[in-house]
UniProtKB/TrEMBL annotation:
This is DUF2029 domain-containing protein. Keywords: Membrane, Transmembrane, Transmembrane helix. The lineage of its organism: Bacteria, Bacillati, Actinomycetota, Actinomycetes, Micrococcales. The chain crosses the membrane at residues 40-60, 133-155, 167-195, 201-227, 239-259, 290-314, 326-351, 363-381, 393-415.
């Protein structure tokens, strides 16, 4: 595309959506502006601050529950439900895995985070404790989003404003405070940044920690291994796998040492049936019941299919497969074949939306569908409380199917836009300004994540 350099280097000039959005702050960057003179750290700082504003707006969106509590069906009709509210469960002297505790069904590191924040909540009424826990959780989530933005900008340091796809995504206005999923996302993005800096052991440790916060990072590790193996970087693969396994072993070992059962969430998952967001729930709505054990097999097959698709894409002749779109594609396959696809699952794709330089038009189309789905799912969940007011099952199935198609389209589009970014980096394009624009010099390794 002829506008790729402008769209990526100076979004307010080359991207129509970004240009229109800048009208509220004085218009696009000037033709002779010294683009990039302040470096990637400046862009990361600005975007991190803006991301906190989005989290603050999400707090306002959940104002009804903050004032009145998170009980159902009120939290469903007002679309302010959050897992953070149950973080106060359990006694102060409990462990992350104590019966009735908030972390009992969470992966190990997420359980520890949920349990640890409980110690900062003073005693009081249940509502007062939930309000304080939610406030603390919101601050932690805002910081984790900032970490994710900074890590993304550090990967694409010659085009740092791409991190705006993380910081300014509309999905932060609805999904950021539903759970602590962003904890795993931040760990994964830090791991990708470490890999981009050629620190495979550290990358493995961070990605392994991400696995202990949620299972999705496993498929990202697989994507990295496929690309690195193609490039004959087996020493780096060994360090990556070693770091990941060591971190996971330490976390699991410490969990067992304090009397916990870190594998309990995975047993719960194995016994669970189809849940919200999954295509298999659509099948159940259509009166096609699928047993829980069959869904487990299907979900595992989804991981296998993702790896096989990754193998095919990496080994295509005369094509240099890039890591970012490959990881996004494999991640989407795992998501849409799983037993559930929660409203906060969208957070996991945000770093890859940035690393593939997705056009804002496509980003906002996908995000718009996510926001609509966010509203629709609560109306469907509330079906049992007031069928006349709620969204019928058939209507929910339609919105769910549209959402799944949007994710497939997101993965498909990422291959084209990632090529635009690689063309910009390889051409050494420095923007239309008269000022100096940092290129790919020094020790920046952003190309490792983009092309590897």
């Amino acid at each position: 595309m002829t506008d790729a350099p402008l769209r990526i280097r100076v979004p307010s000039q080359g991207d129509g959506v970004a240009r229109l959005a800048t009208e509220v702050i004085g218009g696009p960057t000037g033709r002779y502006a010294a683009v990039g003179r302040r470096g990637w750290a400046y862009a990361a700082a600005v975007l991190s601050a803006l991301a906190s504003v989005f989290v603050a707006v999400d707090v306002l969106q959940k104002n009804h529950c903050i004032r009145s509590g998170w009980g159902t069906p009120g939290s469903l009709w007002r679309e302010c439900y959050s897992d953070l509210a149950v973080g106060t469960a359990g006694s102060p002297g409990s462990t992350p895995w104590s019966p009735g505790g908030a972390g009992a069904t969470q992966p190990p590191l997420t359980a520890v985070l949920t349990w640890g924040l409980r110690h900062f909540v003073p005693s009081g009424t249940l509502l007062a404790q939930q309000q304080r826990y939610f406030a603390i959780g919101a601050v932690v989530i805002a910081l984790l989003i900032g970490v994710t933005v900074i890590a993304t900008a550090s990967i694409t340091r010659s085009t740092p404003w791409l991190a705006a796809h993380v910081a300014l995504s509309p999905i932060l206005l609805t999904a950021s405070l539903v759970s602590f999923d962003i904890f795993g996302v931040a760990l994964v993005t830090l791991g990708l940044a470490a890999w981009a800096r050629r620190r495979p052991a550290l990358a493995g440790a961070l990605l392994g920690a991400g696995v202990m916060a949620r299972s999705y990072p496993l498929i990202i590790i697989a994507a990295i291994i496929l690309v690195a193996a193609r490039d004959h970087r087996m020493r780096h693969v060994g360090a990556l796998i070693g770091g990941a396994l060591a971190t996971m072993a330490v976390v699991l070992g410490l969990s067992y040492a304090v009397g916990g059962d870190p594998l309990a969430p995975y047993r719960v998952w194995n016994a669970a049936g189809a849940s919200y967001g999954s295509p298999w729930l659509i099948a159940e709505i259509a009166q096609v019941a699928i047993p829980a054990h069959a869904l487990t097999v299907i979900a595992i097959l989804g991981w296998v299919i993702a790896v096989l698709v990754g193998l095919y894409l990496v080994n295509r002749p005369n094509v240099q497969t890039r890591l970012a779109p490959l990881a996004l594609t494999m991640l989407v396959i795992v998501m849409i074949t799983g037993k559930s696809m929660s409203v906060q699952s969208c957070l996991w794709v945000l770093p890859f939306v940035a690393l593939t330089a997705l056009r804002w038009r496509e980003h906002l189309t996908w995000a718009g569908i996510e926001v609509v789905y966010f509203a629709m799912i609560w109306m469907y969940v509330a079906l049992s409380s007031n069928p006349a007011k709620a969204l019928p099952a058939a209507g929910y199935a339609i919105f769910c199917a549209i959402r799944l198609i949007a994710y497939i389209g997101l993965a498909w589009t990422s291959w084209e836009t990632a090529e635009d970014l690689e063309d910009v980096l390889e051409s050494g394009y420095r923007g239309p300004s008269a000022g100096e624009v940092p290129g790919r010099g020094g020790d920046s390794q952003d190309h490792l994540v983009i092309a590897d």
